[in-house]
Specification:
Elements (H helix, E strand, L loop, with lengths): L6 H14 L1 H9 L7 E5 L2 E4 H13 L7 H21 L6 H19 L2 H8 L3 H26 L6 H9 L8 E2 L2 E10 L4 H19 L4 H8 L3 H4 L4 E6 L5 H8 L10 E3 L2 E11 L2 E9 L5 H19 L5 H8 L3 H4 L15 E2 L5 H7 L11 E4 L5 E12 L2 E2 L2 H28 L5 E3 L11
Antiparallel strand pairs: 1-2, 1-13, 3-12, 4-9, 4-11, 5-8, 6-7, 7-8, 10-11
Helix pairs in contact: 1-3, 1-4, 1-7, 3-4, 4-7, 5-7, 8-17
Length: about 450
């Protein structure tokens, strides 16, 4: 039984997870014969039965037990929707550029996992423009939810006394038993594209630009040469986007053009582009492009390995801490801000059960002593980039029942989550009547006032 984290905390985290995977849910909904329906309305937001059932199945699968589990999840979903509705009323907004950054990163992860943009379109049965719009909407909701919670409870802290008091409220027979856990850090360096590869890509586009200026059709050449499979089949056309929905370099170049004009060769995180503006319509614009991606050379991987080996030597000689090296040199955005330490999903703790480690990590750290750092190892990032990394075994804890001495960080995290949840619940109590809430009769008992 899960006891250190409340079901409210769990479902709120799971809600964020589901938003990130909203596309997968919509794809699954298309492939089922079950009729979905609305089970709650909160302001302008809705809760679907499929959303509730999906989260309930995940909660059961992860070992959460409660006599009213589905009702607990329903309340949490209503609370999350209420947060979103109040964000609109209170004009709480998130930075569009951050949404774009998250969008591009997750799209690249999806594409890397499934193989190509074409396969992604086949899986979701919709064009990339719709996939992008759906994911952008989900990410915006997720970030808005996080910002609202931060404004309500972000400044709340817990004292050691409160941590101890929280721990003492857990029945002794309900204390979890932890298997062997490790703290593992990583420093990741993405192999940079060599100057020769970049120049070759640029020259290929310059040659295509000359052909277009000489009279050949941009869309035809895009279909033949563009390495963006999602748009190449459409003559390079991306469809309409608002400002700050595409990477800055692309948008800036496109908006400088008049309809029909073509840009010079420009570089972005995806490679090199030729851009042709098709139409401007108010705050939106439609464009097409030809994308050429420089090839990664093996020599760059070797240079990356040499760089990481020099960092490893500095750490071993006590010239730099692992945490500082990760912050300064790692290309992994998720772990570098945490001293390079890995975590599972949205978990705040860096302690990871060994049976939850990725096999590629487990078989390396299993050979390390606490405090040791591996030699540079080949690695492929979630968005499919060639990289190298070094792994650091910070600690290893044997199996044991939860106690304050060995598990203070976990218990403190759970106590803080519990305290913040109470603050958010108090906020709901004060604000639940400011937004219209309508719940299906079968879930009437799950209203916020229960």
């Amino acid at each position: 039984m899960k006891t250190l984290i409340s079901i409210t905390s769990f479902t709120r985290a799971l809600f964020c997870f589901c938003l990130a995977l909203g596309l997968a849910l919509s794809a699954q909904a298309q492939q089922t014969t079950l009729i979905d329906n609305i089970v709650a309305k909160v302001g302008g937001h809705i809760v679907l039965r499929s959303e509730l059932e999906f989260q309930n199945a995940n909660a059961v699968g992860q070992g959460y037990t409660s006599p009213n589990l589905k009702c607990d999840i329903m309340r949490s979903l209503i609370q999350n929707k209420l947060l979103l509705a109040r964000a609109e009323i209170d004009s709480v907004v998130v930075d569009e550029s951050r949404i774009t950054e998250q969008l591009e990163g997750r799209l690249q992860q999806f594409i890397a996992q499934i193989g190509s943009e074409e396969r992604l379109e086949e899986y979701f049965k919709k064009p990339m423009s719709e996939i992008r719009a759906d994911l952008r909407r989900s990410i915006k909701e997720q970030m808005t939810l996080q910002k609202m919670e931060q404004e309500i409870a972000g400044q709340i802290k817990v004292t050691p006394k409160e941590v101890k008091q929280y721990f003492n409220t857990i029945p002794k027979d309900s204390l979890p038993y932890f298997s062997t856990e490790v703290e593992v850090g990583q420093i990741v360096k993405i192999s940079t594209i060599g100057a020769a590869q970049k120049q070759a890509a640029r020259e290929q586009l310059e040659a295509l630009r000359k052909r277009i200026l000489a009279g050949e059709d941009f869309a035809t050449l895009a279909g033949q040469f563009s390495q963006d499979p999602g748009s190449a089949s459409q003559g390079g056309t991306l469809g309409f986007f608002k400002k700050r929905e595409l990477v800055p370099e692309y948008e800036a170049a496109a908006l400088r053009l008049k309809p029909g004009e073509m840009s010079p060769v420009i570089e972005s995180m995806f490679g090199f582009h030729l851009i042709q503006l098709i139409e401007k319509r108010g705050e939106e614009f439609n464009s097409r492009h030809i994308l050429i991606k420089p090839a990664t050379a093996q020599v760059d991987v070797q240079q990356t390995a040499q760089f990481l080996d020099s960092i490893r030597t500095l750490i071993q000689n006590d010239s730099m801490t692992f945490a500082k090296a990760a912050k300064e040199f790692s290309d992994d955005m998720l772990s570098k801000g945490n001293g390079g330490m890995m975590s599972l999903g949205n978990s705040a703790t860096t302690y990871i059960p060994v049976d939850k480690l990725d096999p590629s990590v487990f078989f390396v750290v299993d050979t390390l002593q606490v405090g040791e750092i591996s030699r540079p190892l080949p690695y492929r990032t979630e968005d499919g980039k060639d990289a190298m990394r070094i792994l650091y075994l910070k600690s290893k804890t044997p199996p044991h029942q939860a106690n304050l001495q060995d598990d203070y960080t976990k218990i403190a995290t759970a106590a803080l989550s519990n305290k913040r949840n109470r603050a958010i619940s108090e906020w709901f109590e004060k604000n639940k009547d400011t937004v219209f809430v309508d719940v299906a009769p079968e879930f009437e008992a799950c209203r916020l006032e229960q």
